[in-house]
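Handout, page 2. Input:
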Amino acid sequence: MKNHKVLLYRRGGLGDTLLTFPLLEALKREDYYIVYLGQEEYVRLAKLCGWADEALSSEYLSYFMNEPFDRKIIISMEGNLEPFPRERIWLPQYYLEKLGLPKKFSPILPIAQRELPRKKIALIHPGSGSPKKNPPMELFERIEAFLKTWEYEVFYLAGEAEQWLLSQKKNVLFSKDLLEVTKIFRLVDIYVGNDSGISHLASYLGVSSYLFYGPTDEVVFKPIGTNYRILTLPLPCRPCFPETCESRSCLDGELLWEVFLKNFTQAL
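Output:
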């Protein structure tokens, strides 16, 4: 066992979990033995990357709090590190600054083994953890039709929150297994989605990504990666999540289509 041992706790969604990975990487560089507690399906990705030695459910927090550690980092409102900054600063930067760790980290997950598919494949994920974040489905259907004219084979990605897609679309990939989704992304050329955990994963895996941010704050919650484009509307009222208005003008399908088209053309 290494000389230093750290306990890191962060219970949250997939996107929130992935934005703590630079913290794990920085601690690993300092030769810590890391016990990472959170949503078990998500934190095991860190173990797969080699950035956590033990990845367990957040339910074990009370047990490990009584165990000896050189350092305990509890990211929660009741812990010693608040989960979100009080000013507009990117979450990984905020965590690293608060803990006095170097801000250098990998922009791509080390499990991102890209494979060249025989066909050009586009993946669309129209959902997120909150319907308040989602543009109208018509926008994604318009993008689907457009990408097909560029000879992409287009699929929709559905998890538990998007099971309704199964009754509406035939070209749906359904999975509840995050590691299986990670393997799917190895074959994907273009990804289109919202501010969601799956979008964070796509970007972190190096997939060319187009991400709609409506009411949420792209300054604080932008993903990790080098090959993504955040698509927003220049409205003075945004970001506002979770206190969104009823009109949600920031998710206007027609205007976001124009933004997507402009960004797609610029990326050619």
